[in-house]
Each structure stands twice: as structure tokens, then as C-alpha cells.
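Async update (no meeting this week)

Hi team, since we skipped the sync, here's where things stand on the single-chain job. The sequence we agreed to prioritize is pasted below, unchanged from the tracker. I ran it this morning and attached the output directly underneath so nobody has to dig for it. Comments welcome in thread, and please keep replies under the output.
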Amino acid sequence: MKTNPGRFFEDYRLGETIVHAVPRTLSGGERALYHALYPARHAVYSSDEFARSCGLAASPLDDLIAFHTVFGKTVPDISLNAVANLGYAEGRWLAPVWSGDTLRSESTVIGLKENSNGKSGVVYVRTRGLNQRGEVVLDYVRWVMVRKKRLDVAAPEAVVPKLAPALAPEALVVPEGLDFSRYDFTLAGEPHRWGDYAVGEMIDHVDGVTVEEAEHMLATRLWQNTAKVHFDATQREDGKRLIYGGHVISLARALSFNGLANAQMIIALNGGAHANPCFAGDTVRAWSEVLDKAETAAPGVGAIRLRLVAVKQGAAPFALKGEDGKYLPEVLLDLDYWALMPR
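Output:
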């Protein structure tokens, strides 16, 4: 058999490392398409001149371009037969990605747990994205629900990794040379700096974007995410193509510009959950909560920990979970991340 049917739950082995195929060289083309797909406009990722004024050699590619690219490489081996991508933890951006860099991905299986129905299980992997010099630019854990093909195969011993609820500030990696001491707030788009935000503050990002089938399909192809549920409408009983969760992440991050324009660079992903499915026709809005703040050693640079929540039409303001502790049906995404902001 020469074609790849994808792995099923029973095909994974604890501790194995999977080297994912097809490295990808990134260019300004990815940046242009990213900024066309999402209303992305953070200044460090939009302007070489602005980035140089902040101590960088040029404007790096958006942090989520690196995430989507590394993630997409893993799909044929990790989530081709996925029911759903469930969550993230312990993610760190360790070095900027520049136009011309070539990225590849490797994943190590760190946990396996069969579901009680015996028809699927959860696979935990730690994925690393490496550039052409073998430097790790991104490292994160994700877990995904994967179908079983052979239901008679005995379940492996359940191993669920212990994951940090959040990365400590001292674990954050600030890009070399980053300096916000001469930061131009006018060009960045908002006057609000690190000291203007308080832990516990809630921010309604006001704007919304209605998801179209065409843009979702373009994004999924752009990041070479071949998961069947994103392409093949027959994979779901309701006959709908599931919107790639990363598409929702990027939409919400871009919408957060209105109120967090100076949260310039994502450097850590503490946790995340795709709470409910998103489909074409849904209108995505976002709100944020300030969870923590920390100083860094870089000139003028502070770190801010944010909860970013994406919701669809019908959501009540700042509503997240019901009395039963479960996500409300209008909640699409609950993301916990650290970003860098001028002090």
C-alpha cells in the first residue's frame, strides 16, 4: 500500500519520536496571505522600519505563522484521523522566524489514554519546530482525540502527562535585541502601555468577523493542514466541514488588536481549549482578561499574561462557563498566553 491512510489511536507508542515530512521555506508570501486572511496589524509584524526601531534586524514573520506552519507539518502523522484537537500547553516561541527560514517539525508521544467508549483515544505529543540551522524556534504540547480503526486492539496503559498550568515568567524567552525604550505609540496604534493594564481587567475587543467557507479552506490549504474533518464534509454526520482551530486562534488574536495593539509578540502558550466547533457562517468576536504581569530584562519590555476568548453570535458579554463548569455553547476558544508589551 503506497498511500497514507493516517495513524489511528492504536498505532501510537509512548516515547516514540516522529519526524514529520516536507520542510517549508517561508517568505513574504505567507505574510501577505496571513494579513489578507486575518485583520492582523501588530506593528512589529507589519513594518521592517518599526521592527528596527525596536532593536530587531527586520520585521519577523508573525508568531502564529510559525505556529501554523509547524502545526501543519504534524497533521498527516498526528491528527489526520482526528475527531478534534483538544488543547495546548507549555508552548514557547524560542527564536523569531524570518523570511527565508525553512521550518520542519518533530513530535514525541508523551501520553496515551483510550476513551471509555473504546472507539477513540487521546494522544499527547510534544512538538518542536526547527529552522534550517537545527535551532528550535517553537516548542509546545498538544493533545488530540484520534479514532481507533481496530476496535479489538487492547488499550495501552493510560499515561496522562503532568503539564504546567502556566509558564513562569523566568521561563519566557525574549527575542535577542528587543528594545521598547524608543517605542512609537502613535505608529503602533494605541497609547496603552504595560503599566496601564491591571490584573483582572476585562477587555471587549468590539469587532467581529463572519467566517466564510472560502477563507477557511484557503487557510487550511495554506498551512498544509490535511486533517479530513477540515476538507471532507462526509467525515461528520452533520455534513459540515469543521473550521480549523488555528483559524479561530488567528482571528481572535487579530481582533484583540482593538484594546491590545501593543501586545506585540506572543512568546508563550500556557494553555488552550477549542471549546466548541466553529462552522462557516459563524461570526467570531473576542474578549480578553489580564491574568498576570511580569517585568523582563529587556529594555522597556514587559510581559503580560492574557486569556483570549473567542465567541460566536449569541454570546453574553464576558461569559465563559455555565454553573456546571462546562464551556457555554457560544464559546469557541479559550487561550492563555504571554505577550510582550512596552513598559
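Quick observations from my side:
The chain has a mean pLDDT of 95.
Helices lie at 28-37, 48-53, 63-78, 185-188, 213-222, 228-231, 245-255, 257-260.
Reply here if anything looks off.
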